[in-house]
């Protein structure tokens, strides 16, 4: 799922939806809790943190508008920005292959349908909400020959097959992972990459140096610097970074980061 949220502190930035629970495609405009000190309290019980997110998304409509928190109209702009970014990644050397892709927090398959399936021979999806998984299978019925496995799992539990994926795409979902689980997710995804493969994350980021907490959907929105610190802990390096443009100004800034594993001597 991938949810979008507004940023009252962002006066000159554009963004799309914010992070969803553990799927990757929903948008929630609810205000983030201004009490940043509540962060530790919110994450103390990770079981409750994930269960609350799961409960939230179970009540979200399995539609594009539902996935984008009422901002379904920005879907085209989002996909166009992602496609342009993806094209630039294939100018890198070595370029990723185009055989297998993984859509993390896939929701109802919006990104798979409009971005990944036209690009790759096979696409797997991972989504925690069973109803969204069922909807995704229906939405992607025209891509039967290219649709791989739809994994019904939260990202905190998902283990990609080693050496399988040319591109692993995670959008508006990492805010539903604790810091520790986000780091371990990067570690597992690095092992899941094929030779020359990349991970792409597309997320909302705060315009301050503090984490915004949203108890409504049980998620956090991190500063970009903190995310880069988590990536380093997860043995990942940023090879390309770009801000999404043309989103409504009241939304959080959204950045796309292309990642490759850090090569250790």
UniProtKB/TrEMBL annotation:
<comment type="similarity">
    <text>Belongs to the methyltransferase superfamily. NTM1 family.</text>
</comment>
<feature type="binding site">
    <location>
        <position position="171"/>
    </location>
    <ligand>
        <name>S-adenosyl-L-methionine</name>
    </ligand>
</feature>
<keyword id="KW-0489">Methyltransferase</keyword>
<feature type="region of interest" description="Disordered">
    <location>
        <begin position="1"/>
        <end position="38"/>
    </location>
</feature>
<dbReference type="GO" id="GO:0032259">
    <property type="term" value="P:methylation"/>
</dbReference>
<dbReference type="InterPro" id="IPR008576">
    <property type="entry name" value="MeTrfase_NTM1"/>
</dbReference>
<dbReference type="GO" id="GO:0071885">
    <property type="term" value="F:N-terminal protein N-methyltransferase activity"/>
</dbReference>
<protein>
    <recommendedName>
        <fullName>Alpha N-terminal protein methyltransferase 1</fullName>
        <ecNumber>2.1.1.244</ecNumber>
    </recommendedName>
</protein>
<keyword id="KW-0949">S-adenosyl-L-methionine</keyword>
<feature type="binding site">
    <location>
        <position position="110"/>
    </location>
    <ligand>
        <name>S-adenosyl-L-methionine</name>
    </ligand>
</feature>
<dbReference type="InterPro" id="IPR029063">
    <property type="entry name" value="SAM-dependent_MTases_sf"/>
</dbReference>
<dbReference type="Pfam" id="PF05891">
    <property type="entry name" value="Methyltransf_PK"/>
</dbReference>
<feature type="binding site">
    <location>
        <position position="105"/>
    </location>
    <ligand>
        <name>S-adenosyl-L-methionine</name>
    </ligand>
</feature>
<feature type="binding site">
    <location>
        <begin position="155"/>
        <end position="156"/>
    </location>
    <ligand>
        <name>S-adenosyl-L-methionine</name>
    </ligand>
</feature>
<dbReference type="GO" id="GO:0005737">
    <property type="term" value="C:cytoplasm"/>
</dbReference>
<keyword id="KW-0808">Transferase</keyword>
């Amino acid at each position: 799922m991938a949810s979008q949220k507004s940023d009252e502190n962002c006066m000159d930035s554009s963004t799309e939806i914010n992070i969803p629970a553990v799927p990757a495609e929903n948008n929630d405009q609810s205000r983030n809790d201004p009490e940043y000190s509540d962060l530790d309290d919110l994450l103390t019980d990770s079981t409750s943190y994930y269960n609350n997110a799961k409960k939230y998304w179970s009540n979200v409509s399995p539609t594009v508008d539902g996935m984008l928190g009422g901002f379904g109209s920005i879907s085209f702009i989002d996909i166009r920005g992602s496609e342009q970014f993806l094209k630039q990644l294939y100018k890198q050397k070595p370029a990723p292959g185009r055989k297998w892709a993984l859509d993390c927090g896939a929701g109802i398959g919006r990104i798979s349908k409009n971005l990944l399936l036209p690009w790759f021979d096979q696409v797997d999806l991972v989504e925690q909400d069973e109803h969204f998984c069922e909807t995704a299978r229906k939405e992607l019925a025209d891509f039967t020959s290219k649709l791989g496995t739809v994994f019904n799992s939260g990202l905190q539990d998902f283990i990609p097959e080693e050496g399988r994926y040319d591109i692993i795409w995670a959008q508006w979902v990492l805010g539903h992972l604790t810091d520790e689980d986000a780091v371990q997710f990067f570690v597992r995804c690095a092992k899941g990459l094929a030779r020359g493969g990349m991970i792409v994350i597309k997320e909302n980021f705060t315009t301050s140096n503090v984490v915004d907490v949203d108890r409504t959907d049980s998620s956090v929105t991190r500063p970009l610097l903190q995310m880069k610190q988590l990536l380093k802990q997860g043995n990942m390096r940023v090879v390309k970074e770009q801000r999404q443009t043309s989103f409504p100004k009241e939304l959080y800034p959204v950045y796309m980061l292309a990642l490759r594993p850090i090569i250790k001597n």
